[in-house]
Amino acid sequence: MTNKTTTANFVIEKMTAYISGGMNPEIAAHFTQGELTAIYKGNHWSRDAAGNFQHTPLSENVNLKTATQRADAAIAEIISKYPAPEEKPRNTYRSSNGIKCVITAGIGIKEFFAKSGDNDPSAYTTDIQKIRTLWSEGQRRFKAFIRGRFLVIDIDRKPGKPDGLEMFYRIFPREILPAELKNLPLSFPCYVLTPSGGFHLYFKYEEPELNLRELAPGVEIKEWQITAPGSRREENGEYVLHGELDNAPPLYGLIIDAIEEAKRKKEQAKTERSRPRGKAVADRPMLFPKSRIALDDLAHEAAAAYSGNHDRQVSFAGRACRCKYSGPETLVYVKSRTDIFGNDTDTENTILSVFRDNGSFQ
User: Fold this and answer.
1) Domain identity same for 26 and 76
2) What DSSP designation does 94 have?
3) For residue 189, how many C-alpha atoms fall within 13 Å in the half-sphere facing its CB?
4) Phi, psi (5° rounding) for residue 125?
5) Fewest CB within 10 angstroms: 186, 200, 333, 353, which?
6) Cα 244 to Cα 288: distance, rounded to the nearest angstrom
């Protein structure tokens, strides 16, 4: 890796491999340059013939600045052979303009924190006067009812949690994907960028419900409702619509196949858990039921039923309320179990709003 010819050959090999795998030339250049720099600094590892990791050897000391210049020249030559695709104009809709796009498409919305009726179409409205009233009252966050029109794949990219984009490309290698999915989210015709850096991919879908909430950690399936484009979270920003809802592509068959496979594995795991227990367990003495179900048990029920933190919080709060736990003690428990419920800025309002909806503030 110390002479101009070897550097150029390395660049050609790496760049060609990345680009043939569906990566755009600029990102391929970034990855290639990173590998070259690591090699020149002696920080690059590779596998030997036996499959063991070892440092990539250097035949002699090299000047990093000179080597980098050679690499830049080789990369520029490769990129010149792959002209950037023509950018299609894409409209961006923020705030009330995003809300108007939803209404124009005939999709009903409702105030976000009105939890009752989330899956009831009649709880949503396309009446512009009602929506203007909510807007004038300061409402900036809404839910959109998408069932029967769209299916949304929610790619979560929150710090400290699994990267949904990485998980998506683990499930779907780039080389098998249509062009719209190869360089998410920019390659997709209709998506919403979320305040946390994730995004919602909109697909047209009018078929029966697929009944899967999570395809992988950080990759959720939304079939009923979703935070409406144009909404705003005061603490960290807007849900910005990129593109037109009319341009959303139909849900690809390869995604449906992956959802069905995930459901099959889930059912298989459920069957395994439900098999009769061994004799040692069956012979244990009977335990008499407690006066009310413990919060730990209610938490595990909510975790088994739902994958997303918000849905788990709502389910758990409803169960705790019915079991006569108070709102404050339920909230304390939720905040102590971030492994199940998380703890974002909406946690307290979510828990207590469930108790208010059920007529209990204690």
Assistant:
1) yes
2) -
3) 13
4) -140, 150
5) 186
6) 59
